[in-house]
Automatic annotation (TrEMBL):
Gene3D superfamilies: HIT-like. It comes from the Bacteria. SUPFAM superfamilies: HIT-like. InterPro entries: HIT-like, HIT-like_sf. Residues 34-114 form the HIT domain. It comes from Candidatus Lucifugimonas marina. GO terms for molecular function: catalytic activity. This is HIT domain-containing protein.
Length: 220
């Protein structure tokens, strides 16, 4: 795909060096013998909390979001979001290609404190498709030339989608949608909104947003 970054492999990958112990990181979930995903703090300080969840073995963004490793990454995303961002909510974000400001070829999910105002103000336009277990709707989203929301056909919460196999159905539908509507790069994002009732964030309706169609702004 044209959005994939040049990848020289694990020998030159900073994330692989962090996993192997050849580069330093501030860990939240260290690699163990059987862990498929790990978590450490992003060195960027654009938001109060910025974490990176990555596969322990080298793979691209597309490979991560197409594989069942995503299920482990998604569960760890919710665990870390609960730990660090429960009162204010958080976003789970992956960038694909330079148009979406992807900088590392090793697949990863950003966990960023605070909710997405873009998604909060999104306006549904029409249904693109309703194949199998997911619905794909086009939305009008500020600062995004194209936007689609992918959601389970049976309504559920953000937490439940990300903690179950439903995230895999949503991710594969999102990647299929990107091929037609944003082949040169895009962003995948879910917003976990605080309930205001003392519950953990993410009781809002499940949705995985695809933002693309051209150059995007930064993700915070």
């Amino acid at each position: 795909m044209s959005y994939e970054l040049p990848d020289s492999g694990f020998e030159d990958c900073i994330f692989c060096k962090i996993v192997s112990g050849d580069a330093e990181a501030s860990w939240e979930s260290r690699p163990t013998g059987d862990s498929r995903v790990v978590c450490f703090h992003n060195r960027l300080k654009w938001a109060r909390v910025m974490l990176l969840i990555i596969p322990a073995t080298h793979m691209s963004q597309t490979e991560l979001w197409e594989s069942d490793v995503l299920a482990d990454a998604a569960r760890l995303t919710v665990e870390m979001g609960d730990k660090h961002c429960g009162d204010e909510g958080y976003r789970a974000i992956s960038n694909f290609g330079l148009q979406a400001h992807q900088s590392q070829p090793h697949g990863h999910i950003h966990v960023v404190s605070g909710i997405s105002r873009q998604i909060q103000s999104a306006r549904r336009i029409y249904r693109i498709s309703d194949v199998d277990s997911v619905n794909v709707d086009e939305f009008e989203v500020e600062d995004s030339p194209f936007a689609a929301g992918i959601s389970p056909a049976e309504p559920t919460t953000q937490r439940e989608m990300w903690q179950s196999g439903q995230i895999l159905d949503a991710s594969r539908a999102a990647l299929d949608t990107s091929k037609q509507h944003s082949p040169n790069g895009f962003r995948l994002m879910s917003s976990f909104e605080p309930s205001g009732l003392g519950n953990l964030a993410g009781e809002n309706q499940a949705s995985l947003f695809l933002l693309g169609g051209g150059q995007l702004g930064l993700y915070v």
